[in-house]
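task queued by scheduler; priority normal; single chain, no ligands, no partner chains; default sampling; output format set to C-alpha cells
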Amino acid sequence: MSQEAFNLDTEVDVDSIESSSRKARSETITRLARYTVIKLFALFLTVVAGVYITIIIANMGGHVDEIRRGVIRETTVLALSSDPEFRLLPEAERTAIIDERIALAERRFGLDQPFVVRSFRYLSDALTLNLGFSEFLLSDSGSRLVRDIILERLPSTLVLFGTGNLILFFASLSFGLSLSRKYGSFLDKFILGMAPTSSAPGWFYGLFLILIFSSILGWLPFGGMVDAPPPDNTVDYALSLMKHMILPVSAIVINAIFLNAYTWRTFFLIFSSEDYVDMAKAKGLTDKMIERRYILRPTLPNIITNFAFLLIALWTGAIILETVFNWPGIGELYFRAIGAFDTPVILANIVVYAYLLAFTVFILDFIYALVDPRVRIGQKGE
C-alpha cells in the first residue's frame, strides 16, 4: 500500500471516529433532555395531586368556609353594635347594613363562590407561588403577604436541617466504615443495641436535651435562633446562631445516627466479602484504597437512597422539631397556621415541602449516575 493510500485511510478512520463520537454525544444529550422533561412532568403531576388533596383536607371539604362565615358575621355584628348611631337605626335598616357588610367581607375572602371553583383557583395560585395574603398571621416585618412570610422563614429551616443532615451523613458514613473494620467488637454491639432508638422522632430527644443542657445545667439556650436582642456584629450573630443550633442539630443527629451507622456498616461488610476485594488485598493494595475503590464506591447508591429517604422524613418532621425548639422556620409557621386555620399559609407550606421533596427525588437520579457507572440516565430499563 502506498503512503498516500495509507494517509487517506487514516484520515477516513479519524473522520469516522469523530463523527461517531459527535453522534454519541448528541444521542446522550437528547436522551438526557428527554428523561429530564419526563421526570419533571411526572414529579409535577405528583405535586399537583398532593397539593390539591391538601386543599380539600385543609378546608375540611368546605366546613372551614362555614366556620369563617360564622366568624365574619360575629365580627361584623359586634363592630356595628358598638356604634351608637347604628343602634338608633330601624331594625330593617340595621339588618340590611349587616347583610351588606357580611356580603362584602365574604366577597373579599372569595366565599361568594362555590368551594370547588375556589379549590382550583387555590391550586393554580399555590403552584405558581401566587399565594396572596394570609388571613391571620403576619411576618416579622408586619407584612400579610404569604410570600413574604414564607421567604422570611425558609432560610432558617434550610440552615438548620442542611447543617444537621450534612453532619449526620458524614458522621454515619465514618461510623459505618469504622464498625465494618471492628466487626463483633464492643462498639459494634453497642451500636447494634442502640439502633432501635432511632424509631423515636428527633423532637423526642430534643425534649431531653432541653431538660438536661438548658434547664438543669443551664449551658445552652432553651430555644430560638439567636439571642434577644440579636447581636449587631456579624461575628457575634454567627456565634449566637451556632450556639442556638447545638441542641436541635444534636436532636437530628441522635435521631438517626445509630440506625444509619448500623445499616451502612452492614452494606460495607457485604461488599467487603466479595471476591474482587480479596483479589485487591492479594495485590497488596492498602486498606484505605480498598475501602475507597472496592467497598465504598459500590455501596454509595444504597447509602444515597437511604439518606434521601431520611432527608424526606426529616423535612416532614420539621413541624414538631421546630416548634419544640421555638425555631423560626417554616415548620413552626406551619404549626401556627394549622392552629389558626390560615388556609393560604397552610397551602404555602405544603407547596414548599412538596417542591423540596420533588427536588430531592429529582436530584437523586442524577447522583446515581455520578456515583454508579452502571447507571445511564434515560436508557431503556434503567
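post-processing summary
- The two ends are 47 Å apart (CA to CA).
- Residues 150-371 form a domain with the MetI-like fold fold (CATH 1.10.3720.10).
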